[in-house]
Amino acid sequence: MKLEKLIGSLLLFSLLLAACGAPAVDLPAPQVEVEEGAAPEVSAGSFPLLITDDMGREITLEAPAARIVSLAPSNTELLYALGAGSQVVGRDAYSDYPAETANTTDIGDTFGALNTEVIASLDPDLVLAAGITPPEQIASLEALGITVFWLGNPEDFEGLYENIYTVGLLTGRGQEANDLAANLQDRIAAVDDALTGLTETPSVFYELDASDPAAPWTSGAGTFIDLIINRAGGRNAAAGLQGDFAQFSIEELLVQNPDVIVLGDANYGVTPELVAQRAGWDALAAVQNSRVYPYDDNLISRPGPRLVDALEQLARLLHPDRFSP
């Protein structure tokens, strides 16, 4: 179990760090400028399609991608959300959502050397790489004549919309991209409306890994975790950290005394009851007031459409009185 937790933690931190280091997005033609909070429409595009990926590389598709290999869970979830699941012929070992991904060929762990033999055997017309995909992996695939599109991770919800439109173009699902982006925008607006006029914003400690309970890992300012905490009507207790992710001493945690603790490591068996048993943690307001909540970290560590699920769930935890049961 310790090894499983370590592997999961490495995946978690890789995804999160990549989400904060994505380069600027260069949208393909037809280019659509996304204003803050907006979800403009994009046409289905025409083929052959000349499109620039987020590494600045020009990619040509003769037709909508019909045989796609996804190298990251965020990309896999986006493809299925667009209704392009039938076009996915391969996915990385960590892509486990939605359940239908189990019926797709597992191309293995992408945190090392790619199994290019398996990928090539699937005869893909597109490999969809992500912010966690290193350049050398892309080069190894292109050396085999495989077309690779590198989709950078979004830094905010507007960036998420851009990724949706881009994948809609690649897959010939422009209308589905419009519908998905509009739906996500409406859901975010509903959260914003529900939180209008808040007079209290509870401080929130988001626990990533407390293998060392005297110095748990958490997220600082500028990450998607920080963004969603703030958008959900909270304040990140670790916003003053130097660096995106770092350990937070129990002494500093006692000083900050968060109102709420969110257990991003709940998938590894961490529970509110176990938190209460940690030395010194029983002095925290969140523990004393039973405001320690398990949380599915996959929602927030995978920069795909379920980031909106992450926002909705956290807003309900922080302000249950603002939402219907």
- CATH class membership of the largest domain: Alpha Beta
Contiguous low-pLDDT stretches (5 residues minimum) are 1-42
What is the level-2 CATH architecture name of the largest domain?
3-Layer(aba) Sandwich
Quick one: how many beta strands?
Answer: 13
What series of H and E elements makes up the topology? HEEEHEEHEHEHHEEHEEHEHHEHH
Instruction: Label the overall shape.
Output: globular
Radius of gyration: 20 Å
Layout of helices and strands:
Layout: H1 2-20, E1 49-52, E2 58-61, E3 68-70, H2 73-81, E4 88-91, E5 105-106, H3 116-121, E6 126-130, H4 135-142, E7 148-151, H5 157-171, H6 174-194, E8 203-207, E9 217-219, H7 224-231, E10 235-236, E11 245-247, H8 250-256, E12 260-263, H9 272-276, H10 285-288, E13 292-294, H11 298-301, H12 307-318
Parallel strand pairs: 3-4, 3-6, 4-5, 6-7, 8-10, 8-12, 12-13
Antiparallel strand pairs: 1-2, 9-11
Helix pairs in contact: 5-6, 6-12
Keywords:
325 residues, alpha/beta, Rossmann fold, 2 domains, five-stranded parallel sheet, four-stranded parallel sheet, 13 strands, 36% helix, 14% strand, disordered N terminus
Structural write-up:
This protein is α/β, with parallel strands linked by helices. The protein has two domains: 35-192, Nitrogenase molybdenum iron protein domain (Rossmann fold, 3-Layer(aba) Sandwich); 203-322, Nitrogenase molybdenum iron protein domain (Rossmann fold). Helix content is 36%, strand content 14%. It contains twelve helices and 13 strands. The protein has helices spanning 2-20, 73-81, 116-121, 135-142, 157-171, 174-194, 224-231, 250-256, 272-276, 285-288, 298-301, 307-318; strands at 49-52, 58-61, 68-70, 88-91, 105-106, 126-130, 148-151, 203-207, 217-219, 235-236, 245-247, 260-263, 292-294. The chain has a five-stranded parallel sheet with strand order 5-4-3-6-7, sandwiched between helices. It is globular and about 60 Å long. The two termini are 36 Å apart. The model is unreliable at 1-42 (pLDDT under 50).
